[in-house]
């Protein structure tokens, strides 16, 4: 609905008068941004960059190695200088954009050196140096979600690559596996530090951490649909030592600096950790009792998240929690009552429950809105 249509509707409903509508219209016109123009300019710049990249790629084999490395080093130095200049001038977007470009150039440089010197090896051996080189700069200078998302994604990619390349290794590698599992908890814990002047950066870390942590634990609940032997449970217990320690540290950080509502600490850190432990370190055989227990634990975890989220005003997370519970209710009929689902009775019951859940969700939002008003 356009602004003009909204203003006409508000005036017709008596919410504002014509003078207020004129002032709103003038204010919006004064602050209007030519998004279409900038989009066209951005598309043109992208086409220009892509064309240059294709020309270089077409002649890549005839370009001398020293020239490739020299140009890359010059670009990297220029990006680092731009970060410095942006920070010195207080130009947030120059600093953040250059920092993001610097991170990309460092990663590209690692790949370029590997190609020039014909180095081979697993992916994590290239990602770990990037993490070591760029983490200090991105954590010290980063102040927007853009940089937070980029660094968080690279951290999770590095840890996942490290674990997957060595998934069958034993001994101390179990702790590396645990570090990969704890990746999103590390992000949540870092976001709970006192980032007083860089709240957007902290929010970005926390958003990625919560999304991956709750999503990962939700998928781990389907372990209840399989058999976990005593030996497998013992190995997982060793792997989860590191995540438990990191989760405890994140809880302490949250209580110490109170960067988020205290009611959210248990649902987004401790409850998923407990649910993961129950699913993976408790031996069980496949069968409907185990599947039922898994479904109940899953819904209890997300129910706790929903309750805390609505109490803390985290409406988006509340909506995700209700959707997660609704999907699980739908799935459980296929897991436990296959014959009913085949005849349609299970789907009918599940549909009724989902409709009731949606109506209840809407009623909760309405009640919260009235209380705040």
Structure description:
- The protein is mainly alpha-helical and 373 residues long.
- The protein is 81% helix and 0% strand.
- It contains 17 helices and no strands.
- The chain has helices spanning 3-12, 18-30, 35-58, 65-89, 92-116, 124-141, 145-165, 173-181, 183-191, 199-220, 230-239, 241-257, 265-281, 288-312, 315-336, 338-343, 345-372.
- Helix 6 packs antiparallel against helix 7 (145-165), helix 7 runs parallel beside helix 10 and helix 8 (173-181) packs across helix 11 (230-239).
- The chain is globular and about 65 Å long.
- The protein starts with a helix and ends with a helix.
- The model has no long low-confidence stretch (mean pLDDT 87).
Summarize the structure.
By secondary structure, the protein is an all-alpha fold. The chain has helices at 3-12, 18-30, 35-58, 65-89, 92-116, 124-141, 145-165, 173-181, 183-191, 199-220, 230-239, 241-257, 265-281, 288-312, 315-336, 338-343, 345-372. The longest helix is centred in the C-terminal third of the chain and has 28 residues, at 345-372.
């Amino acid at each position: 609905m356009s602004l003009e249509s909204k203003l006409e509707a508000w005036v017709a409903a008596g919410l504002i008068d014509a003078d207020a509508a004129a002032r709103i219209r003038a204010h919006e016109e004064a602050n209007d941004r030519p998004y279409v123009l900038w989009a066209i300019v951005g598309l043109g710049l992208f086409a220009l960059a892509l064309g240059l990249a294709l020309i270089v790629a077409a002649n890549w084999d005839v370009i001398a190695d020293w020239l490739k490395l020299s140009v890359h080093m010059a670009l990297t130095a220029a990006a680092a200088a731009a970060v410095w200049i942006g920070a010195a001038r207080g130009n947030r977007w120059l600093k953040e954009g250059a920092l993001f470009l610097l991170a990309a150039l460092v990663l590209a440089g690692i790949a370029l050196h590997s190609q020039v010197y014909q180095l081979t090896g697993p992916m994590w051996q290239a990602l770990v140096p990037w993490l070591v080189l760029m983490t200090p700069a991105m954590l010290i200078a980063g102040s927007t979600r853009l940089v937070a998302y980029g660094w968080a994604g690279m951290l999770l990619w590095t840890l996942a690559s490290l674990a997957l390349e060595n998934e069958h290794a034993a001994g101390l590698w179990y702790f590396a596996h645990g570090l990969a599992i704890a990746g999103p908890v590390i992000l949540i814990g870092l976001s709970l530090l006192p980032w007083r002047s860089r709240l957007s950066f902290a929010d970005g870390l926390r958003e990625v951490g919560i999304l991956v942590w709750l999503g990962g634990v939700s998928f781990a609940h389907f372990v209840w649909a399989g058999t976990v032997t005593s030996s497998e449970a013992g190995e997982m217990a060793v792997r989860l030592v590191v995540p438990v320690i990191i989760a405890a540290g994140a809880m302490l950080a949250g209580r110490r600096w109170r960067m988020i509502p205290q009611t959210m600490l248990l649902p987004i850190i401790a409850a998923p950790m407990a649910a993961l432990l129950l699913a993976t370190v408790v031996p069980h055989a496949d069968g409907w009792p185990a599947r039922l227990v898994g479904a109940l634990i899953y819904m209890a975890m997300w129910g706790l998240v929903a309750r805390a989220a609505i109490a803390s005003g985290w409406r988006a997370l509340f909506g995700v929690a209700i959707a997660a519970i609704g999907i699980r209710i739908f799935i459980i009929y296929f897991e436990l009552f296959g014959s009913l689902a085949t005849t349609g009775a299970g789907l009918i019951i599940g549909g009724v429950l989902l409709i009731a859940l949606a109506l209840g969700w809407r009623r909760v939002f309405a009640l919260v809105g009235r209380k705040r008003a």
